[in-house]
Write a structure and sequence with these properties.
The structure holds two protein chains of two kinds. Chain A is mainly α. Chain A is built from eight helices and no strands. Helix content of chain B is 88%, strand content 0%. Chain B has eight helices and no strands. The chains are: A mainly alpha, B mainly alpha. At the A-B interface, helix 2, helix 3 and helix 8 of A face helix 2, helix 3 and helix 8 of B.
């Protein structure tokens, strides 16, 4: 059992099995819609501030550094189109998902882990409430729906913050900023960002559910579960981001 | 309105608690910390994060290059990629990603660890034995993380540049010489120093936030308290890294 390869294969098998079970739970009833909506409301409220605080400063930094670089080439009018493309496609979805992983992922994992170590998961099963359906699936669905919505707000905040640092702070012409803002952006960019977010959000819910359900070892185990969820999710997001970026580039999108 | 009011009151109370914790922690940090503990935490924070930072920054660097290429190819500026990676990566993205990653791993670890000690009354036990928990538990952790994160940031910059070069030359078939020239023209050694300085600030912030939330866990919250402390530490450390990155960049590059 201590062979790392065997353990890795075992984990892959367990995660795939878990995913299949969740897929079955989503397709078939009973569904706990009220719980799902409660989770969505909770996640949206808790994640809004961290997501905004993550994306807006990054957009500001892009604007600040971009102004200097673009000035050297004398094309500072193009700054806003670079800003809009990179925020819409790249930074807003990635950072919003990372912050959802940090906030929602760790709190879902900690919540499920706490229920696990206190025996509440077993209590649910005894009452013939499927813990997967009642505890894990609402979190998964909520993450999947809330992350793209947060991404829209984050994108908006990012562009506002980019405008603030480019126009009033760095002195770019206001008209040039808005003229070029949408020149390189199509609705497709927004949909790509939303799609990425839904995918990463599903990853957050899945990993948080799996790690949370696998919690052992009391209070220290709960901390470990929250920690692991965030680390695994960030790995997933960054690796998937690179793969998706390459695929989109090869497709010419 | 009631929600905002309680939120405001709770936030102000947390800021007050954080300030008083920091006063005690700084006083403890100024005395020489227990050396064995310091080495143990430094190797856990530093060596333990190397693999994670390597993997994640490799993908961040390759992702930055590929994304930058697809953005620049639209207006025919593929040759600017070296400048883009140099400025966007070395000055901003690699240090801040290293901060976020390390904050998520080490920060959460510290918070969970201290919170577990707090709710299982190990901190009280130390006090009973006449050991100052601030000096014995908090100070070595603060020192270890503050000293290790800058090193990890410098390492992340090196790894990130390597990954960007690899992606530009091997994946996108760009001219390696042009890429290096662009990089040389836009990035100086002072940028690396700025990255290390940022790492110092990120490390200290991550360590302070994590120790504060871990140390403030209440025994009556039990296992749930550990989860809450870990969660807050991760989120606030990430936000602190990003916000302070912007402040430091604004100070250093304007």
């Amino acid at each position: 059992m201590s062979n790392p390869l065997v353990r890795a294969i075992e984990t892959v098998g367990a995660v795939s099995g878990f995913t299949m079970q969740l897929a079955r739970c989503i397709v078939t009833g009973p569904r706990y819609l009220r719980e799902t909506i409660r989770m969505m409301e909770l996640l949206a409220r808790r994640c809004l501030v961290p997501v905004g605080l993550a994306v807006a400063p990054v957009a500001g930094v892009i604007a600040l550094q971009g102004v200097q670089a673009f000035r050297e080439y004398g094309v500072e009018g193009l700054l806003s189109s670079m800003l809009a493309t990179s925020i819409l496609r790249q930074y807003s979805p990635t950072l919003a998902s990372i912050m959802v992983a940090a906030q929602a992922g760790s709190s879902i994992a900690a919540r499920i882990g706490t229920m696990r170590v206190r025996g509440q998961i077993d209590a649910l099963a005894v009452m013939s409430v499927d813990p997967l359906r009642y505890v894990v699936v609402p979190g998964l669905i909520a993450c999947m729906i809330v992350t793209p919505l947060l991404n829209v707000i984050a994108t908006f905040l990012g562009i506002v913050s980019g405008w603030f640092f480019a126009v009033p702070v760095a002195g770019i012409n206001d008209g040039a900023f808005f003229d070029n803002l949408y020149s390189q952006v199509t609705p497709l960019d927004l949909w790509i960002g939303m799609g990425k977010c839904a995918f990463y959000g599903a990853g957050v819910g899945l990993i948080a559910g799996y790690v949370g359900m696998a919690t052992t070892g009391g209070a220290a185990g709960v901390g470990r579960a929250a920690n692991r969820t965030v680390v695994y999710t960030i790995i997933l997001i960054l690796v998937a981001d690179f793969v998706i970026g390459t695929l989109l580039l090869n497709q010419g999108l | 309105m009631g929600g905002i009011h309680t939120w405001l009151v709770e936030s102000l109370a947390m800021i007050r608690d954080f300030a008083s914790f920091m006063r005690r922690a700084l006083r403890a940090q100024l005395r020489p910390p227990p050396f064995g503990e310091l080495v143990r935490h430094a190797s856990d924070a530093g060596v333990g994060s190397v693999l994670l930072v390597t993997v994640l920054i490799t993908f961040t660097g390759m992702g930055l290059t590929v994304q930058g290429y697809s953005a620049f190819a639209k207006f025919g500026g593929e040759d600017m990629l070296g400048a883009f990676v140099g400025i966007g990566g070395v000055r901003e993205l690699y240090p801040v990603m290293a901060g976020i990653i390390v904050g998520a791993r080490i920060g959460a670890n510290l918070a969970a660890n201290l919170a577990t000690m707090q709710i299982s009354e190990q901190v009280e036990a130390l006090e009973v034995m006449g050991v100052d928990p601030m000096h014995y538990l908090v100070a070595p952790r603060l020192w270890a993380v503050t000293l290790m994160v800058p090193v990890l940031c410098a390492y992340a910059i090196a790894i990130g540049l390597g990954a960007s070069y690899f992606a530009a030359v091997a994946q996108l078939d760009l001219n390696g010489g042009t890429f290096i020239d662009q990089l040389r023209a836009n990035v100086q050694w002072s940028d690396l120093a700025a990255g290390v300085l940022k790492g110092l600030v990120f490390g200290w912030l991550v360590a302070c936030i994590a120790c504060f939330h871990g140390y403030s866990a209440k025994k009556r919250d039990g296992a749930e308290g550990v989860g809450i402390a870990t969660n807050r530490a991760i989120v606030q450390a990430a936000v602190a890294c990003i916000v302070f990155n912007m402040i430091l960049s604004a100070i250093m590059y304007i």
